[in-house]
Design a protein that fits this description.
Largest sheet of chain A: 6 strands, mixed
Order of helices and strands of chain B: HHHHHHHHHHH
Helix content of chain A: 25-40%
Shape of chain B: globular
Number of domains of chain B: 2
Structural class of chain A: alpha/beta
Oligomer: heterodimer
Order of helices and strands of chain A: EEEHEEEHHHEHEHEEH
């Protein structure tokens, strides 16, 4: 660890995609500093570049210009120090739950006993014990996402990148997993960068919410959420913030919709 | 109960067909040489199946005796050629298919040649195979290998190319090396395609074995039905054909059971 308090540092990041004969400016001049153990949500409408930014931090698609560093070291490729949880779970269907969780540790070359102990621990932590020998196709969406989270926790990455992980779940399962994630975050002290388009989700989870603009993706507003946890989604302060964010977001959503009506390629 | 009814309804049409066939023969509507009665086919089938010698323990085991009839010997000969040809053809197609699916370079190198050769039916190789390998098992195995080669190849290529990129992203994210990516992600992800290719390849091999036996080999089920024609033994021809059909069904059932077992993780498995 270098001396800086900042863990993830995004500086002057631009990302330009070629789409046919036109350039799409997906990210413009993004500066973002995230400290150790912070829970940050990226919030915005479709096409605002929030997933692009997450993929850049993950190392899947590097910025066109600008730098992203983790503890002072520039990111050049994906790595197990930044575990990613995908919306579509992306569990390996040919592996059982325990094999999926063990995979990252096997890659690291961990000893058999270590792997077994870690898998047992994670199965217990995420209430997956009865499902250890099941295949993903026999699990519900919520269960699958628990396994995907366990798979990332297994490799002990200090940073968790989450790309709308609960977007495909029903409301109750979603709340349940949000609480679970907060519990894990408190227990394990991870730094979390979480992409969502749900205002309520961002307000419920994050220490800080970063609202992004629709194309080109820039940071419109950073909002520190000081409400104590567990947060009451029905409380007046929560709803006040919700209203504020909602207004910010709707402006961007309107621009997105206008683009769609004009037939601009939005994805 | 439902199951019983299901089986019963499945047996109805074959029974009706046999009854109609028997009627044709009994009423003398067709010449018995052209279409013998089901009963005569059954009798011939049994004669074709049973051992020719009396059981003698000095000659070997009981099982060996049981299989000493003409039909079991023919069936084993055909099966042997199918399996050897299938494993040679499939065994060459699998590594080439994996390489072509994985590497654009290998794909670019081999695809033009493959596309030209693929539409040539294995049967068109018969003259060349006899010229190259003479008569007997070698030309037959050669033809069967060609028949099995292309389905396994094409499906393996498609299987590797269609691996969902999200699995590869997960692999990179977890720090997998290229070798691990290939063995632990690409290979298992492609197995449903590969098994489909193997099943089609096995079916083709089974067609080709019958044809090749009609031309290049002096035993086997294909040879036997052609031989029977020379003596106008239409009952033996039909018995041989049903044997071919049942053997083919047996092989396909084994292949499909095997792939269901090995792909029990797979969601949209074809039910065979």
């Amino acid at each position: 660890m270098t001396g800086t308090a900042n863990h993830i540092s995004v500086q002057g990041v631009h990302k330009i995609f070629q789409s046919g004969d036109q350039d799409i400016h997906a990210l413009r001049a993004i500066d973002l500093e995230i400290t150790h153990g912070e829970f940050v949500c990226l919030l915005g409408p479709s096409g605002c570049g929030k997933s692009t930014l997450l993929n850049a931090v993950a190392g899947f698609s590097l910025p066109s210009s600008g730098t992203i560093t983790v503890d002072g070291a520039a990111i050049t490729e994906p790595g197990p120090d930044r575990g990613m949880v995908f919306q579509e779970y992306a569990l390996f269907p040919w592996m059982t739950v325990e094999q999926n969780i063990a995979f990252g540790l096997q890659i690291k070359g961990a000893a058999k006993g270590t792997i077994l102990a870690k898998v047992d621990e994670l199965l217990a932590l995420l209430n997956l014990r009865e499902f250890r020998r099941r295949y993903p196709k026999d699990l519900s969406g919520g269960m699958r996402q628990r396994v995907a989270i366990a798979r990332v926790l297994a490799i002990d990455s200090p940073i968790m990148l989450m790309d709308e992980p609960f977007g495909a779940l029903d409301a109750l399962t979603r709340r349940n997993l949000q609480d679970e994630l907060l519990r894990l975050w408190t227990e394990l002290g991870k730094t979390i960068l979480f992409v969502t388009h749900s205002i309520e989700e961002a307000l419920y989870l994050a220490d800080r919410t970063v609202v992004m603009t629709y194309r080109p993706g820039t940071i419109k507003r950073e909002l520190t959420i000081d409400l104590p946890r567990p947060r009451d989604v029905a409380s007046p302060p929560f709803n006040l913030l919700k209203k504020e964010l909602s207004e910010l977001l709707m402006e961007e959503q309107d621009r997105h919709v206008q683009d769609e009506f004009r037939g601009v390629a939005v994805n | 109960m439902k199951r019983v009814r299901h089986t019963a309804s499945g047996i109805l049409v074959p029974l009706a067909a046999i009854a109609f066939w028997q009627l044709l023969s009994s009423m003398g509507w067709v010449n018995a040489t052209i279409l013998p009665s089901p009963m005569r086919v059954l009798i011939k089938w049994w004669a074709y199946l049973r051992p020719l010698e009396v059981f003698d323990p000095a000659q070997g085991s009981y099982l060996k005796w049981c299989l000493s009839g003409e039909l079991p010997q023919d069936a084993m000969g055909s099966l042997y050629r199918v399996l050897v040809g299938f494993f040679i053809g499939g065994g060459l197609a699998l590594p080439l298919g994996l390489a072509m699916g994985y590497s654009r370079l290998v794909y670019g190198l081999f695809n033009p040649l493959i596309q030209v050769l693929r539409p040539i039916p294995p049967i068109a190789y018969i003259p060349l195979s006899i010229l190259w390998f003479g008569l007997g098992n070698p030309p037959a195995v050669f033809l069967i290998s060609i028949g099995a080669f292309f389905p396994v190849l094409m499906n393996t290529v498609a299987g590797v190319q269609n691996v969902d990129s999200i699995y590869l992203r997960v692999g990179r994210n977890l720090g997998a090396s290229r070798f691990t990516q290939f063995t632990r992600i690409i290979l298992p992800a492609a197995t449903p395609y590969i098994f489909t290719g193997a099943r089609i390849g096995m079916g083709t091999a089974f067609i080709v074995v019958i044809v090749s036996e009609m031309i290049a080999v002096n035993n086997g089920l294909g040879y036997r039905i052609l031989e029977a024609r020379e003596y106008l033994w239409s009952d033996k021809i039909i018995a041989g054909m049903f044997t071919i059909g049942l053997l083919g069904l047996g092989i396909d059932t084994v292949m499909s059971r095997l792939s269901s077992y090995l792909l029990k993780w797979h969601r949209g498995l074809e039910q065979g």
